[in-house]
Amino acid sequence: MSKRAYSIGLMFSSTGPYSTVSNSMLNGALLAVAEVNAAGVVALDAVLANPGGDLTRYAPITAGLLATDVRHVVGCYTSSSRKEVIPVFEKYDGMLWYPSHYEGFESSNNVVYTGAAPNQHIIPLIDYMMSNFGNRAYCVGSNYIWAWENSRILREIVQTRGGKVLAERYLPVGETGLDQIVGTILSLRPDFVFSSLIGVSGYEFFRAMREACRRQGLHQPSIIPIASCNLSEPELMDIASDARDGHISSSVYFSTIRTPQNDAFVSNYAAAYPSMPWTSADGEASYIAVKLLAQAIIEAGTDEVSAVRAALSGGRLDAPQGGIRVDGETMHLYLTPRIGRSRGDGSFDVIWQEAAAVRPDPYLVRFSATDWLAPAARLHVVR
After folding, report:
1. Is residue 95 located within the same domain as residue 147?
2. If you write DSSP's letter for every residue of 158-212 in order, what string do you get?
C-alpha cells in the first residue's frame, strides 16, 4: 500500500530585500522535506510560494494555499508578515509554522513558533553586552514590530538596571542611506549598538560603521560593538569582507555547534545547496518545523489541524542545535540560548551558552530585570 501524501506550503520571500535569509529558510525546509520523504513513513508534497518581500501579498497567498488541500504552511520571516497572515489561518483553521526568532507577546492556536522567544535571545544578549561593554546603548532597526518591541524590551531592562538608551532610530526595510545615523553614533560613542536592521539595511550598516570607525582610527568591535539578535551566517557573506568580523549575535543556533546532528545537517545542507552552503538559525528553525510537522502527522495519522496540535504537544526532537521539545502551553519550543562572535570567514565562534534548553517565555511573565544574573553566573563559557 502506498504511503499517504500530504501537501504543505512553504512560503518564503526568496526575492526581495531580505531574500538571503529567506532562501536559507526555504533551503532548510526543503532539506527536511527530502529527508522525511526518504524515510518513507509519510510523504510531503511541498507547495512553494514567494511573496517577494511585499507585505500586501502574504495574506492573499495564504488564503490561496488554504483554499486547496494545504492545511499547514511553514513560512514568514518578518513579524509584520506573520501578523498579516495569522487572521487568515484563524479564519480557515490552518496552521502557520513560524520558523524565526521573534519579539514575543503573542500566541495563537493556529501558530507553532519554532524560532526563539524573547527570553531565548534578547535577554541573554542584554546580559552579555551590559556585563562586558557597559550600560549606554544606541538602538537602530528596521521600522516594524520586530525592532520596536526588541528595542522596548532592551530599553526597559537597561533603564531598570541604571543604564541609558541614548537614542532609537528606525529605517524603512531596504533603506541603505545610513550616513547620518552612523555619524550620530560616532559622536555619541555608546558602549554598544543594538541593531535590529534586517536584510540589505543591516549589511550596509555593518559596512558603514566599520568604514567610519576606520577613518577615525577606531577598532569598531571593541570601541563601539554592534549586537544583534538576527545576524546569521548567510548574511555575513553579504557584508563587505573587511567588515564581517567581531559582531555579537544572540541565537539558539550557529553552524559551528559540535553535535552529531549538526555535523550531518551542515554537511547535507552544503551538499544540497553548494552555491549557498551556509546554514543559519532561521534555516534550522525551518528544518525543525518540517520535522516536527511530519512527526505529528505520523502520530496523528492525519494532517487535520486539531489532531496535529494534540500530537505535537510535548513533542521532542534531536535537532542540529541539540535536544528540543514543544511547550504545549504556548506552542513555542524549549531552545538553548547562545552568544556568538562573527568571524571573517562567515561563521561564528560560540562564546557563551546556556547549560540546557530554556523554557519559552513569550510574554516574559517569568522574567524580572531586577533579578539580573550576569552571564558568568548562569551561562557556560565555550572555549
Report:
1. no
2. HHHTT-EEEEEEEE-TT----HHHHHHHHHH--SEEEEE--HHHHHHHHHHHHHH
